[in-house]
Task: structure prediction
Amino acid sequence: MKSTPLLTLLGGVTLGAVVLALSVHATGGNDEPPVPAAAPAATAGASAAPSPSPSPTEAPVNATWAGRLTAGTLAISVQNGVAVAYLCDGAAIEAWFQGTAAGGRLDLAGRAGETLSGTFGEGQASGQIKIDNQALPFTVTTVTAPSGLYRATATVRGAQVDGGWIVLADGTQVGLVTVDGVARPAPPLDTATGRVTVDGDVLTPTRPRELS
Amino acid sequence: MTIPHETRTNHTIDEGAGRAVGTSQLTLLGVPFLIGATVAVTLGVYGSLHEPTGVAVNVGGFSSPQTVKVWLATGVAVLAVTQLLSALSMWGKLGSSAPSWAAPVHRWSGRLAFLLAVPVAIHCLYALGFATYDLRVVTHGLLGCFFFGAFTVKMLALPKPGLRGWVLPVLGGTVFTALIALWLTSSFWYFTTIGVTL
Result:
């Protein structure tokens, strides 16, 4: 009877070790080299612990993640560590973000002070978008071409056209086209040809990154 | 009229009686507190030094790792309330005498709660790390480290003979409060912000 609380603790530690080992295995073991729990304990006493040094020489990131959120649809596209993200509800709300993706972290900002921050790993990116003092958490998963993020900016007969499209893995599209400052749902993009017809004019939106 | 000593858990009765009279509570609890503090600090340091991966092992049947965590943590919160009620019952606060099942319910709900909480913590630490992007997140991270430290103290103190009557209720109450605050800063926030999804 006396030792059962200790057994409970040891059981928890064992379970934690198993879950951690499975996680390291599942993510390809991109963890810091030393045994995770033990190594930081050694430095716990020294208040001036060395900075993490997240292997800065790792290969530049190339990926696109996309998915639905409660507030709309989000796509994040990264080429060589430079990130572009687009949040859009397909009706009236949209926001573009630009920033970086490096060392497992996303750090993007929009024109009106919106921010997108988070982390990414194999297969997904997650984090938080802040717009108008509202925090929107997100988790989006990897998509491959022709799914992803498309953008078109053009001047058509004197009118400034600015469009964004997110094509999800299931083929559904969410997008907005703004013509001279007036936003409306975007006409469907033909992902086979990469073309879209806006007010009778054919545009070819570009992808922030051409994914394999 | 209730006689608290008769309704306490077995260990306090069996091993506590008289043996450590005169030992100060500080001496008794010193080692548990040191170990608990080490646990809390270790978790925090690991969380902030480790590079978050964004992903960890998932449990089947849920739409995302976040919802797994939210529901596991909600299970823990429900069990924590069970803990509170069974503890109150054991200590004779809910009626004249404690039912015989109060102590086993308390022990097993506690074990189960702890075992459910561990994967949540590992996911938080491994996939997300110690983040500081807003107050809720900082609070949640600090509470998480504190909770596991406080739980360790409680578990290490539990079998000790000679503890004063207030020690276990205070430790248990601290662990309970930390856990509920953890739940409010994560699962409750998730349910009210994102919605209730599986």
